[in-house]
């Protein structure tokens, strides 16, 4: 049993990385009162930008992931222009961004359909990787997996322990009050939106340059929507989001190992498991309105013009 469990748990870390980056970015964005439903589109833009940069330079993920972050941040600023500067409907702008990202990534990606990348070798940490069971699961991962843990720790600490975190929450609760005491609400929201876009771009670039190092059209496969759902699942708390990301990562990996474990079920059903789990979780959470109301940023989705 252990020989089957170890690869499933080890694979869960890699499968959760795109959800962690995209989810944490969207969480920070929503903490300021902005809801960006374009995470799927930003992930795809980051994926094709990262893959193109890696393929053209021959430098792999070392160049691809920063390129994905820049592309994600850039396209997020376009969303910010319409949703923040022009006070357009945030949900509509986000959906338009997703549609645009799907189309643009498919168009650019036509040139890279036959390309493949070397991927990223795991970092084997001496001594710790030799620990029975735990070592192969945790201490034989690629660099981006460890980076996702650092990103979680930094964001959780910033939101909970710093003045910046308190300011982001204050803007999300009452942008009018924050503006009245002199804070540049729109500029701070632009920063949060760009950060969320960069994180989504990293998530997409990880998919195309590390997790599946070749270009496949629409390769995010709905992970952007799951990331948005994870923010609600987590009640806008980073620790719960990490737990949810690993839960959905485990469900994703399980579908690949199910037949090896002797579980005879249709492949289509296994492929749908992450999305079915998303719906079930959201239904369960929506039943407890008190939890949502206590943690939901009061100005979420509401336009603000100073």
Short description:
Helix content is 72%, strand content 1%. The protein has 306 residues and is mostly helical. Helix 1 (2-31) crosses helix 6, helix 2 runs antiparallel to helix 3 and helix 10 (223-233) runs parallel beside helix 12.
Question: What does this 3D model show about the protein?
Answer:
Strands 1-2 form a two-stranded antiparallel ribbon. The chain has 306 residues and is mostly helical. It has a single domain, classed as ABC transporter involved in vitamin B12 uptake, BtuC, CATH 1.10.3470. The longest helix has 30 residues, at 2-31. Helix 2 (39-57) packs antiparallel against helix 3 (61-85) and helix 3 packs antiparallel against helix 4 (90-109). The protein has 13 helices and two strands; from the N terminus they run H-H-H-H-E-H-E-H-H-H-H-H-H-H-H.
The total of helices stands at 13
Largest sheet: 2 strands, antiparallel
Instruction: Average the pLDDT over all residues and give the rounded result.
Output: 89
Helicity, as a percent range: over 70%
Domain module tally: 1
CATH top level is: Mainly Alpha
* Cα separation of the termini: 60 Å
Radius of gyration: 19 Å
DSSP strand content:
under 5%
CATH fold annotation: ABC transporter involved in vitamin B12 uptake, BtuC
**Order of the strands making up the biggest sheet:** 1-2
Q: Unreliable stretches, pLDDT < 50, 5 or more residues?
A: none
Give the beta-strand count. Answer: 2
The name of the CATH architecture is Orthogonal Bundle
In terms of structural class, how would the helical and strand content be classed? mainly alpha
User: Which sequence of SSEs, written as H and E, runs from N to C?
Assistant: HHHHEHEHHHHHHHH
């Amino acid at each position: 049993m252990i020989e089957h469990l170890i690869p499933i748990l080890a694979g869960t870390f890699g499968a959760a990385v795109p959800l962690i980056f995209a989810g944490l970015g969207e969480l920070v964005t929503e903490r300021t009162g902005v809801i960006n439903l374009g995470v799927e589109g930003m992930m795809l833009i980051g994926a094709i930008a990262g893959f193109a940069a890696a393929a053209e330079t021959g430098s792999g993920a070392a160049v691809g992931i920063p390129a994905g972050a820049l592309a994600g941040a850039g396209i997020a600023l376009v969303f910010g222009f319409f949703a923040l500067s022009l006070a357009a409907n945030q949900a509509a702008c986000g959906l338009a961004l997703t549609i645009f990202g799907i189309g643009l990534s498919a168009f650019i990606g036509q040139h890279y359909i036959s390309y493949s990348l070397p991927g990223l070798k795991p970092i084997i940490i001496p001594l710790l990787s030799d620990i029975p069971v735990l070592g192969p699961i945790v201490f034989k991962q690629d660099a981006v997996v460890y980076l996702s843990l650092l990103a979680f720790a930094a964001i959780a600490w910033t939101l909970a322990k710093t003045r910046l975190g308190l300011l982001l929450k204050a803007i999300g609760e009452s942008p009018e009050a924050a503006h009245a005491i002199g804070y540049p609400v729109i500029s701070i929201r632009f920063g949060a939106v760009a950060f969320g876009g960069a994180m989504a771009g990293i998530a997409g670039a990880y998919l195309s340059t590390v997790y599946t190092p070749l270009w496949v059209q629409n390769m995010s496969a709905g992970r952007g929507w799951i990331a948005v759902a994870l923010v609600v699942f987590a009640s806008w708390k980073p620790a719960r989001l990490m737990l949810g990301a690993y839960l959905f990562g485990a469900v994703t990996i399980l579908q690949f190992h199910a037949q090896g474990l002797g579980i005879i079920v249709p492949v289509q059903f296994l492929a749908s498991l992450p999305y079915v789990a998303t719906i079930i979780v959201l239904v369960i959470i929506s039943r407890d309105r008190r939890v949502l109301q206590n943690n939901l940023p009061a100005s979420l989705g509401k336009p603000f013009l100073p």
